[in-house]
Design brief:
Blueprint (H helix, E strand, L loop, with lengths): L3 H4 L7 H16 L7 H16 L5 E6 L15 E2 L6 E10 L1 H5 L6 E8 L11 E7 L13 H11 L8 E5 L5 H10 L2 E5 L3 H9 L7 E7 H14 L2 E6 L4 H9 L8 E2 H4 L6 E6 L10 E3 L2 E10 L5 E9 H7 L6
Parallel strand pairs: 1-3, 6-7, 6-8
Antiparallel strand pairs: 1-2, 3-4, 4-11, 5-8, 5-9, 9-10, 11-13, 12-13, 13-14
Length: 333
């Protein structure tokens, strides 16, 4: 039986504390924009994010991180992090969603963190990719990942009181989506192809007035859970299904008891009504402005959200490196 403590809301707005972690990761990683080294981008972001999260008053367990303990020096799955407190939470981190974007100097990369009560985040690890459909609150009761593309788009258009031709569908630019793109275009909807970063795209699909109405297609499983956390705050919907990359992965998942036909709804991925989410732009995209450096500091733009209140904050910040250096032992590159 669940205790009263599990149902009690978290008293402080940790989203604002998480923003400090995503800001630090974004500023560290953005130093390597366009320098062609994905490893440097990722390591800088991980180091900075871990440092700041270590001071947050919580007893956190990383449920989505940089890999298993033997594969990642820090922020690995199962790692305990935080400054120590009675507050027991699950943490999902994506220090850089769009590492390749940053390395190649392309737009749209973000740094993101989500947090909820302990035991409420579920990241199916038996498969790397999921087929996804995500949209805003208007489409909450009308989408069905098992339905044909045409049916979904017509239902979304009806819910939004628009024509299908007014809808914009965001899809990762991958060969695997050739059939999906053909179906979307045949219905008459508009398509926005992105090279990477379907977490940011999923958030855009749920937020109002972003120019994106729905996310469709196959993307990373961890990004699906982070998208679900953000959508819990916004009030939209995401549905996902396992997408094995090959027969070996399919057989392994089946041997592990995975139902490949199972639909993962928002609450299956994040089963809490008190979810916190933060993201900071690394390279400027349509969701967030990236890090801008100036003499002695930098400017950042972030998003901070909490599901229980439904509050969405856009946080523009100016950072003074000289003063920050006095507070931190983490060296900025």
């Amino acid at each position: 039986m669940e205790s009263a403590q599990q149902h009690r809301p978290i008293e402080r707005n940790i989203a604002m504390e998480l923003v400090r972690a995503t800001e630090a990761a974004a500023m560290a990683a953005a130093r390597y924009l366009g320098r062609g080294n994905k490893e440097l981008v990722d390591q800088a972001a991980v180091d900075a994010m871990r440092f700041v999260l270590g001071y947050v008053r919580m007893d956190g367990i990383v449920v989505i991180g940089e890999g298993e303990k033997d594969e990642a020096p820090m922020l690995y799955i199962g790692e305990r992090i935080g400054g120590g407190a009675e507050l027991q939470v699950d943490i999902a981190v994506d220090p850089i969603d769009g590492t390749t974007l940053v390395a190649n100097g392309l737009p749209g990369a973000i740094s993101a963190v989500a947090l909820s009560k302990r035991g409420t985040m579920n990241c199916p690890r038996q498969f790397v990719y999921m087929d996804k459909i995500a949209a805003g609150p208007e489409a909450r009761d009308v989408i069905d990942i098992n339905a044909p593309v045409e049916e979904n788009l017509k239902n979304i258009a009806s819910a939004k009181k628009r024509n299908v031709s007014d809808l914009t569908v965001v899809v990762l630019d991958r060969p695997r989506h050739e059939k999906l793109l053909s179906e979307i275009r045949s219905v008459g909807a508009r398509v926005k192809l992105i090279p990477a970063g379907d977490l940011a795209a999923g958030i855009q699909a749920a937020l109002p007035e972003t120019g994106v109405d729905v996310l469709m297609g196959v993307g990373g499983t961890p990004e699906g859970v982070l998208t679900a956390a953000a959508i819990k705050c916004i009030g939209g919907i995401i549905q996902c299904k396992a997408w094995p990359r090959n027969e070996k992965e399919r057989d392994a998942a089946l041997a592990d008891g995975v139902d490949l036909d199972k639909v993962y709804y928002t609450d299956d991925l994040v089963n809490s009504e008190d979810v916190f989410f933060a993201a900071t732009g690394v390279s400027t995209g349509e969701l967030l402005t990236g890090v801008r450096y100036f003499s002695g500091g930098a400017a950042t733009q972030s998003l901070a959200m909490r599901s229980s209140s439904g509050t969405i904050r856009w946080v523009d910040a100016i950072h003074n490196f000289e003063r920050l250096d006095k507070l931190s032992t983490l060296e900025l590159p």
